[in-house]
Amino acid sequence: MNCCAECFSSPYLKDIINRNGFKGNCEFCLSSDIFIYDTNELSLIFQNILDLYSVNNEIGSKIELQIEIDFPNKIFSSKIVEERRSDLLKSIIENDFESYSHLFENNVIFTFVNNSVGDELINPLQISWKKFADEIKSTNRFHIQNTLDLDKLKILLNRYSKPIHKGKIFYRGRISTNVGYDIYNMGNPSSEKAKSGRANPTGISYLYLADQLETTLYETRASLLDYVSIGQFRLKEDIKVVNLRGNLYDPILLAENEELEDFMIHLPFITKLEMELSKPNRRNDIELDYLPTQYLSEFIKSIGYDGVEYQSSLYSEGYNLAIFKVDKFECINVELHEICKIKFTHNQL
């Protein structure tokens, strides 16, 4: 049987089908006159995904549903309704179905969850991070007893390496008067004026940038009728950052490289790190709370990266960069904006 790129949301899988397929009609999502692909050709990739699961009728779900729970919107597209996912999976592994029939006849869950004895087997870095964070904030600052496995952390962070190419534009905002700032006053503060932040310690100055103007306006936390100078920063040369936005991954690519299980085991840890970095600064924050993420940023810098990328917690559609090597960017333009409307949302606690 034949499927098509529209059956899947994985960019890697879409590329395989569009490059190697032939024109025809899809038998699963019913798209017509589109590049289609023999489902059997995808067998090895999906076997690597199915191999992650084992039977657990108590807390598991049907395989087609559990895959969507574990990889939401990352494998199947919305064009493949739930009842058709099972048919598509069975077609893909048709020649080896006997080896996997038990996964379709029972509820399933990740094997590493099934076989774990306590959280420490699942997320060793996450547990050691908590002990480390508690110690560096309140017990020892420079000679840590609850050390992290830095070799493992390096391997893990290298998996999130992301190139950013010369010429890319990012933004930085500063609340100002109606005169605004010029390009020479839009950069990072001097070392003498650098206050402690989520990524930088006191006295070490990083350049905090945002991906778009809208993100910048949220990150400055300007009030109604405030003036905000927005600088455009152009990247002068290619750089490499660690992208901690852990939800941006392609399980198909990881499955083909046989890295998916280890990735999923440590994804909660990466998510935890990103949450720590992206927390908005509050007026009652104390600098000690920043020490763990400052250590993380220093480690990322020490293994050769130019910065770290993380999700904006103030604007869900944007992200931020903390740049260590600030001379790789130049401010090329500044625009002055006035905040004319603010809409608050709130939750009762």
Record the SSE blueprint.
Blueprint: E1 2-4, H1 11-20, E2 22-24, E3 34-38, H2 43-50, E4 53-55, H3 63-70, H4 82-92, H5 97-105, E5 108-110, H6 111-114, H7 124-138, H8 150-158, E6 161-164, E7 169-176, E8 207-210, H9 213-220, E9 227-235, E10 239-243, H10 251-256, H11 260-278, H12 291-302, E11 307-311, E12 319-323, E13 329-338
Parallel strand pairs: 10-11
Antiparallel strand pairs: 1-3, 2-3, 4-5, 6-10, 7-9, 8-12, 9-13, 11-12
Radius of gyration from CA coordinates: 24 Å
Query: Structural class of the secondary elements?
Result: alpha+beta
Whole-number tally of structural domains: 2
3D shape: globular
Order of helices and strands: EHEEHEHHHEHHHEEEHEEHHHEEE
> DSSP helix count?
12
Q: Sheet with the most strands?
A: 5 strands, mixed
Q: Oligomeric form of this entry? A: single chain
Mean pLDDT: 89
Sheet with most strands: strand arrangement: 6-10-11-12-8
Name the helicity range: 25-40%
Number of strands: 13
Which percent band covers the strand fraction? 15-25%
Distance between the termini: 54 Å
